[in-house]
TrEMBL record:
One cellular-component annotation, GO: membrane
Ranges for domain C-type lectin: 45-187
Protein name according to UniProt: IDD protein
Gene3D superfamilies (UniProt xref): Mannose-Binding Protein A, subunit A
Superkingdom assignment: Eukaryota
Gene behind the chain: Dgcr2
């Protein structure tokens, strides 16, 4: 019923005597909105989490950093996903490597050069074989730091800092020397995050983020399922008290 106050109820026990009990934290519907660790942005359309890393790394180091957080350099399945990325505010500070109003970061594509005669010709590939992504970028702008000896260039997605440009989805694709240093965008599957912001592995019990620290759920495909709520007894000998927002059935007595 959504009641937060102490609920006193009466029931008829054996022998006709009346028993009395108190419950607090009456279970109520909860909407779980956190499916990514802190610092990651969630997109429902792909059930994925995204994060921009500001520390400038070359392409290969960026690949390893993303792998260490159970992800990969981001690739995109459709225009809608790309529009979601472009619309985000990525908290990009001054320590970026390009103009303040323009942001570039490594993403998970490579441009393979097939002809250098009169103009550069080639095609985009997804950097990781076996990927199911179907979206490939359009023809790129070639970066200023590219080498004449390199036959493989790496993808940088450029977005714009100004909100009007960002929300119109304006962007550019660059094919750049893979050893240049740049910010980069990692992508990983959504996950279960508990009330203390810890990542929970598949199949484990946890208390999801929300307003009820007395829920216990099972993590399944990044979603809390089969949740069970505990009801707490009122703290004895205490008239006024405060519930702990992170610990089940833990109270602080506020009596003088």
């Amino acid at each position: 019923h959504g009641k937060e106050n102490v609920d006193s109820r009466h029931s008829r026990g054996r022998g006709g005597e009346t028993t009395r009990f108190h419950t607090v934290n009456v279970a109520q519907p909860v909407r779980f909105s956190r499916k990514c660790p802190t610092g990651w942005h969630h997109y429902e359309g792909t059930a994925s989490c995204y994060r921009v890393y500001l520390n400038g790394e070359n392409y290969w180091d960026a690949v390893q950093t993303c792998q260490r957080v159970n992800g990969s350099l981001a690739t995109f399945t459709a225009d809608q996903e790309l529009r979601f990325i472009l619309a985000q505010e990525w908290d990009l500070e001054e320590k970026t490597f390009v103009r303040k109003d323009q942001r570039r970061f490594w993403v998970g594509y490579q441009y393979v050069i097939t002809n250098r005669n009169h103009s550069l010709e080639g095609h985009w590939e997804v950097a990781y074989k076996g990927s199911s992504e179907v979206f490939l970028p359009p023809d790129p702008i070639f970066g200023s730091a590219m080498s004449e000896n390199e036959n493989v260039l790496c993808a940088q997605l450029q977005c714009f800092h100004f909100p009007t440009l960002r929300h119109h989805g304006l962007h550019s694709w660059y094919a750049e020397n893979c050893y240049e240093k740049s910010s980069f965008l990692c992508k990983r599957s959504q996950t279960c995050v508990d009330i203390k912001d810890n990542i929970v592995d598949e199949g484990y019990y946890f208390t999801p983020k929300g307003n009820d620290p007395c829920l216990s759920c099972t993590c399944h495909n990044g979603e809390p399922e089969m949740c069970v709520a505990a009801l707490c007894e009122r703290p004895q000998g205490c008239q006024q008290y405060r519930k702990d927002p992170k610990e089940c059935c833990k109270f602080t007595c506020l009596d003088p």
